[in-house]
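Notes taken during the Thursday session

The instructor put the following on the board and asked us to keep it in front of us for the whole hour. The protein is Adenosylmethionine-8-amino-7-oxononanoate aminotransferase. We were told not to look anything up and to reason only from what is written here. First, the residues (421 in total):
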Amino acid sequence: MTLKDRDKKHLWHPLTQHKLHPEAIAITKAKGCILYDEDGNEYIDAIASWYTCMYGHCNEYITSRVATQMQQLDQIVFSGFTHEPAIKLSEALIKILPDNQNKIFFSDNGSTSVEIGIKMALQFHFNKDEKRNTLIAFEDGFHGDTFGAMSVSGLSVYNGPFEDFFLEVKRIPTPNGKNNDVILNTLNTIIKTNKVAGFIYEPLVQGAAAMKMYNSDGLNAILKFCKDHHIVTVADEVMTGFGKTGTYFASDHIDTKPDIICLSKALTGGLLPMALTTCSEEIYEAFYSDNISKGLFHGHTYSANPLACTAALASIELLQSETMQQNIKTIIASHKAFNEHIKNHPKVKSTRQTGVIFALDLNIEMKRYGNLRDTLFKFFLGSGVFLRPLGNTIYIQAPYVITKKQLEKVYKTIEEALSIV
Ligand SMILES: *Cc1c(COP(=O)(O)O)cnc(C)c1O
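Then, after some discussion, the predicted structure tokens were revealed:
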């Protein structure tokens, strides 16, 4: 029996209606930008396996460092104990994070890093004897699938069964360069009738909303408003972190820095699951007290797992290397050239780019998980490219180590796909 068939017996996949999508492709090996399936097919991983494997799959620099660490210390409780991989990682991170960030809290996936960001924002006010219970978020944001993260996500198409149990959230539109006054008016109305604890946002690019990009000056105005009203700002950089926007973090493009930053995805280069919630000294100080109950009583069994910390540290070293920084510049320039080539194609409605993230919208209406989307997805795989269209959006977020030839093939395949829709 093939792996594909054995899979069906006991496995339940994420974000899948198994009756409509019974088949999963069994991947047996991955190296660099290439995925290999059990039937011998090869695919270029043009979305870096959900934007995680930015240094290529099974990157030897990362795997060898983790292999060494494995012989030394595998796992240890992180309450009351500490270890060098976590300490080294914190030192490396603080050097590249926005200047106001000073403390790092560990967890193991993006949704959880958001839960922790939300809890920090709520408890920050609680510890100061101020009851603030409302959060502000963007209309089309996505922050994860746990309850707090679902609550702040605007993309709630599949959240129906849970909506009655959500946190109190007010929504604002993303800035488009023309709606600043509308947004600030809305914010003023919200704070008149609600006690707002925090504002959570994906800086510059909303990933799951199909790589929607928005105006950075408008975001800066919102962040300034929040600072003025003691609303804790939480940047969800789970997707945008570690070079995606051309700088280390998307927040680097914006003058007003967030109080809290959530990180995961590319953090470990895709090798091991890990997430971080970082914060400013001001946030941390609200929890630092002789009163034990003012502490942040949140923890996970695998918090700061030494192997994951080692993978993250090796990944950051790679990101900082001249080669990787040059690769990022090359991809940005290459996307720009492709954009010029494709933007006037009759099947293309619009294109956009931030850093290494490139997206185009097709000139047709499509359901997020509809038939045409499936046809496109199959066409890409049949052509040897793994791209995962979101509704009528096709986007690229390839590993930084993608070769010129591989990237050309991705572009060519997208262009060919335009003729089948
Ligand atoms: C993927 C993602 C999350 C959720 O991370 P998981 O590790 O899948 O739980 C949260 N926020 C953003 C912006 C994401 O892209």
